[in-house]
Amino acid sequence: TTHQYKAWKNSLEATYSANYVRDILTVFGMLMDDAVDHRPPLLPASPVPKVNRRRGRFVPKPREKKNV
Questions:
Q1: pTM
Q2: Exposed, middle or buried by CB within 10 Å (0-12, 13-18, 19+), for 12?
């Protein structure tokens, strides 16, 4: 559940560095999203709150050509 996730997150934050915790939570969030999106779903809903989650490859904006 979300409460268990928050408790786990707090215990990680008390033990490990902020960057390491961010990396762990990012991978865990992707795993939970994939479990929900799987057909048939492996989980009914993700316990990870949907806050500033990003996913996918970075696609740069096309550059405009300068007329000189």
A1: 0.67
A2: middle
